Amino acid sequence: MKPWEQILTNIANLFKVKTIVTLVIVLTFCFLTLRQINVSNEFVMIATAIITYYFAKPESRREAAERKAAEKREDDEQ
Length: 78
Known about the structure:
Blueprint: H1 3-14, H2 17-34, H3 41-56, H4 61-77
Helix pairs in contact: 2-3
């Protein structure tokens, strides 16, 4: 796969629902912090839980199989 195709694929994968939700939560938290607005503990707990889930979630079997198939196709092309 060409580098620019890989970049476009990565950008397309960014637009999954969980990524959008995580980005909105992080951007909101950053905005409120920069504006020096006090946020409630509930918001901080929810943001922490969402971010932890997003980054700590193990890869599903289907995602692993798709990733392996894509790597195999790349190896075959070379």
